[in-house]
Amino acid sequence: MFQSVIIPVKNGEKYLPACFDSVLAQVDAPYFEISVFDDGSVDETSKIISCYQTIAEEKGIKFVASYEAISGGVGYAKNKAVRQSSGKFLCFLDADDVMLPDRIKKQYEKAKEIERNGSLAFVGSSFVRLPKDATERYTRWACNLTEDELYTQIYTAFGPTLIAPTWFLSRSVYNQVFGFNEEIKNGFPEDLDFFYKALSLPIKLCRLQQPLVIYRYHTECATFSVNENTIWDLRIKQIEKDVLPKWAKVTIWNAGKQGKRLYKSLSPINQTKVIAFCDVDEKKIQQKFYELYDSVQRKVTARIPIISYKNAQPPAIIAVKLDMTNGEMEENLKEKNWKESFDYIHFS
């Protein structure tokens, strides 16, 4: 039984040496191989890969590398790196990130424990952000989720509750979701799509509290190419699949732009379940109703009450961003004594 470190890369000359150095510096790690796919790089990436392949093999580490001149996109590159590997567990590492010295050891131990207990392993970890002050809200959220929140906060704009550069998972998970979407080369959230599909399997999500990855933030990140509307649509699709079939009625917590966008994004049958918008803003509450006007039929097709959050009834979709109101929204929600995932879900 061994692990495959999966490294897809495109034009990675700036950060790739540090990435490889971190893999080769693993301490007390069980046997692992390195699998690299170069997705059409035109810089010095291929030379760096060749150099580190020699270094790795001199250390007795299997190093599998391949290259294609025409880029197939992020999902394609990940699939190529996985499919040429052979480890029981897959340890994903972005070419611009660095793993800390005991990452493989720690995540392997947890993954084995999970599988011994009859589940498929999907393990992540906390991380160190570089630069330190980049994406403070996101980092605070991702590194402080409880075990329950790994499952309940999967619909927020932050994306997967286990951060993709920290993933360490059973190969069986990858096989059963048929890999990453590669139909859309750029601008598609292939990690979120993969994560949602994996949730339908008998997996155990686990985030190790110890930071095991240095997660780099820079303007060339693939994240910047992902279309926000595509992420939104994927999240809507997931709540319509997972949540709304269980609810006969629903309140949308936010009578502003986000709440209305959420309502309009729902299917017609799910729009009929919306019994109210609720808000803290007196100006919005004084409007009393939100009216949806159909320009084709030239008439109002829906008239939904706008009420104070104090009068809101569960279940509800919270369309207010977490950690953005100096704790006010979280306090208002706390006083309702609602249970997350049963009485409400976070969406924004």
Name the poorly predicted regions.
Answer: none
Number of strands: 14
Q: Could you name the CATH homologous superfamily of the largest domain?
A: Spore Coat Polysaccharide Biosynthesis Protein SpsA, Chain A
Cα-atom radius of gyration: 22 Å
For the termini, the CA-CA separation is 41 Å
| DSSP helical segment count | 13
Shape designation: elongated
Q: What can be said about the biggest beta sheet?
A: 8 strands, mixed
Q: Examine the coordinates and then state which fold CATH places here, giving the name of the CATH topology of the largest domain.
A: Spore Coat Polysaccharide Biosynthesis Protein SpsA, Chain A
CATH architectural type of the largest domain: Alpha-Beta Complex
Series of H and E elements: EHEHEHEEHEHHEHHEHEHHEHEEEHE
As laid out across the biggest beta sheet, the strand order is 3-2-1-4-7-6-8-5
Give the overall pLDDT as a whole number. 95
Could you please describe the fold and organization of this structure?
Helix 1 (16-24) packs parallel to helix 2 (45-58). The chain has helices at residues 16-24, 45-58, 74-83, 103-116, 136-142, 149-152, 171-176, 190-198, 228-242, 257-265, 268-271, 282-286, 328-334; strands at 3-9, 32-39, 63-68, 89-92, 98-99, 120-130, 168-170, 203-216, 250-253, 274-279, 289-294, 299-308, 316-318, 344-346. 38% of the residues are buried. The protein is built from 13 helices and 14 strands. It folds into 2 domains: 3-227, Spore Coat Polysaccharide Biosynthesis Protein SpsA, Chain A (Alpha-Beta Complex), CATH 3.90.550.10; 243-346, 3-Layer(aba) Sandwich (Rossmann fold). Strand 2 (32-39), helix 2 and strand 3 (63-68) form a beta-alpha-beta unit. It is elongated and about 70 Å long. The strands form 2 sheets. The chain has an 8-stranded mixed sheet, with helices on both faces. The chain has a 6-stranded mixed sheet with strand order 11-12-10-9-13-14. The mean pLDDT is 95. The chain has 348 residues and is α/β, with parallel strands linked by helices.
